[in-house]
Each structure stands twice: as structure tokens, then as C-alpha cells.
Prior knowledge:
Blueprint: H1 3-24, H2 38-58, H3 69-79, H4 82-89, H5 91-112, H6 125-142, H7 182-200, H8 205-213, H9 232-253, H10 265-289, H11 291-313, H12 320-344
Amino acid sequence: MSSNSSxxxxxxxxxxxxxxxxxSNFIPLKKYDTGDGMFLQWVLCAAVWLVGLLVNLLLHCPxxxxxxxxxxxxxxxxxxxxxxxxKTIGLGLGILIWGSFNALTGWASxxxxxxxxxxxxxxxxxxxxxxxxxxxxxxxxxxxxxSEIPSTACSADTTPLMSKPVVSQTQDPxxxxxxxxxxxxxxxxxxxxxASGILYGSTFVPVIYxxxxxxxxxxxxxxxxxxxxxxxxxxxxxxxxxxxIYFLAYCAAMRNSPKLYPxxxxxxxxxxxxxxVATCCWFVANHSLSAVVSFPIITTxxxxxxxxxxxxxFKEMQGLQNHVLLGLAFxxxxxxxxxxxxxxx
Length: 345
């Protein structure tokens, strides 16, 4: 097997693992009350950092580039909205929407060389552009899918996936998200999903920028590693630092009385581990396939997995119209993924 074929095989295998884990990593949290998500964000990011530290040790501690932390800061900012998104429009639809905008942002920045990066070339530009157009179509279809979400966390199904949840009697169990009027929940959830998707799509920009400038002798990044996984620890360090700052600011805003949900700690930690492993696979896929190919595949694939969870386990999407729209969107995604794959051949 040639070196190129081997790289493609590794890249697509890593993409498949990333898709499965990204589409499932919030499942352990689905039936736990997580409030406004600020405490959960910090727990999840702590788990992400620990996995990144382990990977860094296995790689024998490659050079740490602080600029790569910026990508983690961007991701953590977008991730703040995850709990409100899931509570307002559901797990499946939320991942579908933010995945589509994630794919478009990541693809465009890599393909056209935004933010100081070098524009990436593919063997079949036309197929790559068709794939981007299909991503726009699928994102448009997702916005018309309606999800069945309880109006408040207080009335939601409380049968958890790991143990019986207990809400502290010393704090109000309902967050600002739970108090949103029914008419406002969908617009708020969709808007947050779009914003998170755009931020997620920018998370690899610093790493790609460093790699692109590592080949320039006049750059401060000259000689930097070409292997994407070498930047994972800096990336997750940015995630943990930013989430800690946000959580401390949240505690200050709450006058040192933050809403903590102890029953969400273990599920949140598990969710963070799954996400971190998926991200490591994504770094591998970026190296083997290039970001312009891996981004559209990994950002849209998890939506299919999450939607299956939403349809068959959590019953978030019901009705013939929703299922027809979902089917059309999936066909669009599949066609786009195939275009992306063949554009690299």
C-alpha cells in the first residue's frame, strides 16, 4: 500500500471514530439537570485537559506553542451555549445546525486561506464547491425541523442514564433557559447553535496558521511541527484556561452562589473524555486528509449520529414532515461527504 493510500485510510478511519464520539458525547448528560451549563462546562473541560495531558506525555512532550491555545479559547466560548441549545431545540437538531455552520466556516477558512492561512488545494475543486453548497442546503433544511422538548427542566423526564438525579433543595432548579417562553425557545436555540457553529469552525485556525508558517524561515514559527497532534495539549490548555475564567466570572456574577449540580459531575467527565478522544482523532484526520477535506466530513457526520439518538431514543423529532425533512437533509449530507471524499482522490 502506498504512503498516500495509507494516509487516506488512517484519515478516514480517524474521521469515523470522531463522528461516532462527537455525535454521542452528550448522551451521558441528556437526562440530568445541568442548569445553565456553566458548572458542566468546567467539569467537561477539566476532563478534556486531562486527556490532552495524557496524549502529550505519550508524544514525549512536543514543543508547546502558546498561540495554539487561542483555538481552545474560541472553542470554549462556543461551547458555553451547548446546554441552552440542547434544552431549547434538542440534542439532535442542535448538533445538526452547529455542525453545518461549523463545516462551512472551517471549509471556507481552509479553502480560501482566511486569517493568514495558506489556501488549500484539492484534486477536484468543483466537487469541493458542490459539497459546500450542499452544506448550505442541509443547514437551511435543519432550521425547519421542529423538535419536541419539554418547556422546563422541572417537567422533563428525570430517568437518568447512570443514577437517580437529586436536585439540591437549597437552590432554584430552573435556570434562565428553563424560564424562556415557549415562543422564544426555538429562535434562541437556533441562533445560539449558529453562533456556536461559527466559533467551532474557527477552532483549528491557530494550529493551521502555525503549521503554514513553520515552512517560512522568516517566521517566528519556523521549524514548528507538521504533525497536528503535537498541538493538542496547547489546544486543550486553552480550553481549560478559558472555561475556568468563565466559571470564575460566573461565580462572581452569582455573588459566590453558583448553581452546582453534583449529579452531573461523572456524566460530564465522561462526556469530556469522549469529546477529547474525538478531537484527537480529528487532529489525526486533519494531518492525513487536510482540513479542507476532514472538516466537512467530521462536522456534518455527528449530526446524523445525534439525530438518530434524538429520533429513536429521546423522541425529539416527531411527525411525518420532520422525518421527511430529516431524510432529505441526510441525503444532502451523504452526497456532500461523497463529494468531499472524491475531491481528494
